[in-house]
């Protein structure tokens, strides 16, 4: 059914948001959704071509008659087919954009947190491999090495290039403010009293409540 593969992509995207690492790229599903969009587009083009041929034939029989456009009320079956195909294509495209946007946001989040997706993925798989060996009763020292498939990157070549360029841009951006940690936590402190590190002497500071501080 139209849209089922797009729904799977959205489910993978939702799962990606709750993970600490970036899961493997769903290449087969993405390609299948893309093929479905192209098939729907060909169906729409075929229907429109048939309508155009019918219009030309009608104009040939009725010369001098005013040129008329397609009226959905005259052929509700064709109008419904065009609408369903168009909405299915639009939904699949939105699912593709959502999936890739969430993966891009995950890569950006890792850059801000100073995490290398490749090293983080390898470390996670090593931990999973150790847990699997322990479940099968193997001693920790006799753990089975990872196969070559475990070393495959979960990022596509395009995503790896995006990570590299975004990381370079972030490093250049942080280079302007070397005294400030821009990658620190964004959550405000919950303590009632906190220590504030002053980077520059600002003299006397007065708050909105009239309290004066001397830097």
Automatic annotation (TrEMBL):
Domain GINS subunit: 76-175
Source organism per UniProt: Arthroderma otae (strain ATCC MYA-4605 / CBS 113480)
CDD domains from the UniProt entry: GINS_A_psf1 (cd11710)
Name this polypeptide is given: DNA replication complex GINS protein PSF1
A GO BP entry: DNA strand elongation involved in mitotic DNA replication
Stretch forming the signal peptide: none
Pfam families: Sld5
Keyword Nucleus applies: yes
């Amino acid at each position: 059914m139209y849209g089922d593969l797009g729904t799977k992509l959205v489910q993978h995207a939702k799962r990606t948001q709750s993970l600490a690492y970036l899961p493997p790229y769903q290449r087969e599903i993405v390609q299948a959704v893309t093929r479905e969009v192209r098939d729907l587009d060909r169906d729409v083009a075929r229907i429109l071509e048939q309508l155009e041929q019918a219009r030309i034939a009608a104009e040939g029989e009725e010369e001098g008659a005013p040129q008329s456009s397609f009226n959905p009320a005259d052929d509700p079956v064709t109008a419904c087919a065009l609408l369903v195909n168009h909405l299915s294509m639009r939904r699949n495209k939105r699912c593709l954009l959502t999936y890739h946007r969430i993966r891009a946001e995950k890569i950006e989040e890792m850059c801000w947190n100073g995490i290398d997706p490749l090293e983080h993925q390898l470390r996670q798989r090593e931990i999973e491999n150790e847990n699997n060996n322990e479940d099968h009763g193997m001693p920790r020292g006799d753990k089975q090495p990872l196969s070559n498939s475990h070393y495959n990157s979960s990022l596509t070549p395009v995503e790896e290039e995006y990570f590299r360029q975004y990381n370079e841009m972030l490093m250049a951006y942080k280079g302007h403010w070397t005294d400030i940690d821009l990658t620190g936590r964004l959550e405000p402190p919950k303590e009632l009293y906190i220590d504030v590190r002053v980077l520059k002497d600002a003299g006397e500071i007065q708050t909105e409540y009239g309290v004066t501080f001397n830097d």
